[in-house]
Design a protein that fits this description.
Layout lengths: L3 H15 L4 E6 L12 H5 L4 E7 L2 E6 L3 E6 L5 E6 L16 E7 L3 E6 L6 E6 L23 H8 L6 H6 L9 H10 L20 H19 L42 E5 L2 E5 L6
Antiparallel strand pairs: 1-6, 2-3, 3-4, 4-8, 5-7, 6-7, 9-10
Helix pairs in contact: 1-6, 3-6, 5-6
The chain binds a DNA duplex through α5.
DNA sequence: AACACCCCCTGTCGGC
DNA sequence: TGCCGACAGGGGGTGT
């Protein structure tokens, strides 16, 4: 599920319910998710007011009063669910998957936020807000592709000198942070670039951006922005925090469309699927060069 | 330094 | 129906 647009969607869904509220109680149903929870995790959360929610790459950051920030990553299958547990509340659903509800956070507003993660590739940690960027998981992250200044020149600089296939370089979170398998495939198709082309090709001998770099930077930003507007992509049964479904998956041009006709007008190609560093790449061999 | 490969864990789906 | 292998949105560690 969660690449940048999905995490952004989750963040926007959680913010109205969480920001300003105080954490009343935290229930940890196991000792950790991918990693053990930090020492005294529950105690350090309890009683704290939530000051802000932000996102860095695919990480959700929950700033708490008292100087610490909760860092959460959804891994492959993590999701948050919001329930209004106020007495008499109309919508009081029962968990469809209680087995994988690992963390339950009760707020003083009556809202309960539950983290569910079947595969347990997600994780949570607490770290000092001041110097948060030095957290081991955050310190090496590359550029935010939606930040101002992410343009052809910046992209070319990030890829210059790399002989890695373009797809692998775009997935490298140390260069660009937040892209995953789906949006890399989609952006490359939009930019008409082959996932196998050497990444360094997007910079010329002087390191200046080629025409392809311009097309790719634009495609990356457009596909991410459109996906956020659509509420992210809902694959399998993932939902947004409020239970709504994202619908960007209907806009996929290549991802999971092996064998389908290329959607590009006047292109007679058929979407192919190949493995690249152990993961599926979907692309049109006809128009992506 | 930069890659390719394997693993973490669980669920689901397609083929036989 | 049941079993088994392949595969899934991420990413860290290791070995070349």
């Amino acid at each position: 599920m969660p690449e940048l647009p999905e995490v952004e969607t989750v963040m926007r869904g959680l913010a109205p319910a969480m920001v300003g509220a105080r954490i009343e109680a935290v229930e940890l149903r196991r000792a950790g998710i991918r990693f053990p929870f930090p020492p005294r995790f529950g105690e350090r959360l309890t009683g704290k007011r939530i000051e802000a929610l932000t996102r860095r790459a695919k990480y959700l950051l929950v700033r708490l009063e008292g100087g610490e920030t909760l860092i959460a990553h959804l891994g492959m299958s993590g999701s948050f669910r919001i329930e209004d547990m106020t007495p008499g509340a109309f919508h009081r659903e029962r968990s469809k998957d209680p087995k994988h509800d690992h963390v339950v956070i009760r707020l003083d507003t009556g809202t309960v936020v539950t983290f569910n993660d079947p595969r347990r590739f997600g994780f949570m940690d607490l770290f000092a807000t001041e110097g948060l960027e030095t957290h081991p998981r955050l310190s090496a992250l590359g550029d935010e592709p939606l930040a101002p200044g992410f343009d052809a020149a910046r992209l070319a600089a990030l890829l210059a000198g790399s002989r890695a296939p373009l797809k692998a370089a775009l997935l490298d979170q140390k260069r660009i942070a937040g892209l995953g398998n789906i949006y890399v495939c989609e952006a490359l198709h939009r930019a008409k670039l082959s996932p196998f082309r050497p990444a360094g090709d997007l910079a010329d001998a002087r390191g200046s951006p080629t025409r392809a770099a311009g097309a790719l930077a634009k495609a990356i930003r457009a596909v991410l922005q459109e996906a956020i507007t659509a509420g992210g992509s809902t694959l399998r049964d993932h939902r947004q925090a409020d239970g709504a479904l994202g619908y960007f998956q209907h806009a996929f041009e290549v991802y999971d469309r092996e064998g389908a006709a290329c959607s590009r007008p006047a292109c007679a190609g058929t979407i192919a699927r190949d493995a690249q560093s152990g993961r599926s790449t979907f692309y049109c061999p006809e128009c992506q060069k």
